[in-house]
Amino acid sequence: MTIDLRSDTVTKPTPGMLHAMLKAKVGDDVFREDSTVNELEARMAADFGMEAGIFCPSGTMTNQIAIKIHTQPGTEVICDKTAHVYIYEGGGIAFNSGCQVKPLDGKRGLITAAQVQEAINPDDVHRPPTSLVCLENTANRGGGSCYGWDDILSIRDVCDQHGLTFHLDGARLYNALIAKDESPLQYGKVFDSISVCLSKGLGCPVGSVLLGTKEAIAKARRIRKLFGGGMRQAGYLAAAGLYALDHHVSRLKEDHKHAAQLADCLKDKDFVGEILPVETNIVIFSVKGRFSSASLSAYLKEQDIITVPISPTQVRMVTHLDITQDLVDKACTLIEAI
Ligand SMILES: Cc1ncc(COP(=O)(O)O)c(C=O)c1O
Q1: Does the residue 79 lie in any domain?
Q2: Å from CA of 185 to ligand 1 middle
Q3: Does 303 sit in the ligand 1 pocket, CB within 6 Å?
Q4: pLDDT at residue number 1
């Protein structure tokens, strides 16, 4: 059986999730008549203690809508240099919002309050006004790294001092909540908007929810339509989200344990250099000696283990709902034999 460690986006709905989807009550969500979508949006808003939510097709869309509603063209967005919003959203910040980015040299995808403070532009006609700070938790290119809570609060303070809005790309926020034993309510109090993906560790086929104030989400509804993201009987998909919130959150600790096991079996191999600390479900390691990242990935693929060479020297493995303990054991046995 193929061991697909490319991403936690490759999961297929479980029988339980499919059953929940099939029995969903639906309506036309553009008319706000889909009771299952309404339930998902209200439930997530309540879980995070935020006023409102909006269900969208993807995490790219929820991030891009958030950036659009928090900025004006010609302003500057601060984020880490490896942030998904910056390097993996097709130049959307420039294309959709007419903003430029000030990328910061964070550590493992995480930036600090001091770096944000230093990156804010002075009030000078030559300089674009700074408008928004975006964090990513967990940070994908940081190897699933998590922010310390006090670091988030310190960045919020800097935003408050300078009148900046604060967005969280929480594509894998539930992984961070489980790893750090944090609550969604903490996050809802601190960020102006939060994007949460249902189609990553939570195992849904499609969907992300953007959370914010009533006013922000009303604006988001207009932008979602403009981006072509208004969906009709989307309740079938929202039902998968509701099911995942009930059944797939606490099990994320299994994925974290599996990622740690993979890192442990890699650590003594002569072709493995630095392994980024494994905090959640992502293992990123550098490759040295007889393999390049591409040739190691190709070799592993011959053994039915699929990985991603994310840079010329680094390979990424991601654990998820469809990676069982048996598959992790099998992957370790195959890796140990290399
Ligand atoms: C950190 C992060 N943010 C946002 C996204 C975008 O999600 P989507 O693929 O649903 O557009 C991803 C996708 O992998 C991601 O890893």
Answers
A1: yes
A2: 22
A3: no
A4: 87
